[in-house]
Amino acid sequence: MNNFKFQNPTKIIFGKGQIASLKDELPQDANILLLYGGGSIKRNGIYDQVISALGDRRVEEFGGIPANPEYAKLMEALAVIKARDITYILAVGGGSVIDGAKFLSAAALYEGDEPWDILTNNISTTKGMPFATVLTLPATGSEMNSGSVITRAETKEKLVMGGPGLFPAFSILDPEVIHSIPQRQLANGITDAFTHVLEQYMTYPMGAYLQDRLSESILQTLIEVAPKVMEDPTDYTAASNFMWSCTMALNGLISKGVPTDWAVHMMGHELTALYGIDHARTLAVIAPSHYTYNFEAKKEKLAQYGERVWNITEGSTEEKARAAIQRTEQFFHELGIDTKLSQYTDDYEGTAEEVAKRFTERGWKGLGEHQSLNPEDARKIVEMAY
């Protein structure tokens, strides 16, 4: 196991009725920006719970954050922060709204001329404006980590940012919020969390026994609860295990002491930027091709995954590893997730070359756990995913 440091300062408040905890957790004198998405929180009762808990605090609302948080829209929110002397951000939504809050947290205190430079120059934020979250869509784990992904429509870019100053002060996780989530978004959430674990697990053996078992337990839990959540989102036991698995999948714990990959995400981000495909679905498109292309480097871990997670016990290491890739793709299909780019767009020719070009222009010469995948490798992987 590699040396590591681990610190996660986010306070988690989990369970039924916990949105009411906002009244005790937020500073009474805070000038709050209430950030949310398309307005579903006003239809499902979450907005009313939040407003009730905020009491007589000063609140400015800013809605309309899209599924891929868009830079231009966030700049509008930043103008409100500066004009209205906002001191605290409350993100009520899924990963996109929370990612938007992280960008605003960093941008509010950024001293440069162009906040987009935080992303293009990979600036680590050590101190941001304080913010908290009320999670409404389990998926990304953004409620308990310091990472964020922001899209810029005018340039068709989707870039990552983060830093130790971008952990939420606290996050409220009430599993009952999933009652009103559409089936498509539930499937996306399961797929997103599942792939987050794979990115931190599907590398090579490191002798990190506990980390492997933690990752495998999250995968097994997601597999177990997926059909229950899809069939009946009001099943509280399934909903609570689903929500907590999504958070645990990307709160930093399972990545400590082990190599991580993240090449699937980097390629997937480009597909979203180019075509607007749901983030989780781009991961399902890229992952099978990525594991097949890098089979020799990953086969030992793939076989372990096949044995422990999918109970694939027959055959050689290679046979179990290939069966594990097939079973993973089947799992995505069972959720209603297509796994080929051509199933999302007819305009896929040339995509692989465009992704490779973008990686080259950004100087991304090494992706994956060995930092050995170059833009040409990315081209081949994306082409395999057509």
TrEMBL record:
Residues 9-175 form the Alcohol dehydrogenase iron-type/glycerol dehydrogenase GldA domain. Pfam families: ADH_Fe_C (PF25137), Fe-ADH (PF00465). Residues 188-359 form the Fe-containing alcohol dehydrogenase-like C-terminal domain. One of its GO terms (cellular component) is cytosol. SUPFAM superfamilies: Dehydroquinate synthase-like. PANTHER family: ALCOHOL DEHYDROGENASE YQHD. This is NADP-dependent alcohol dehydrogenase. It comes from Neolewinella aquimaris.
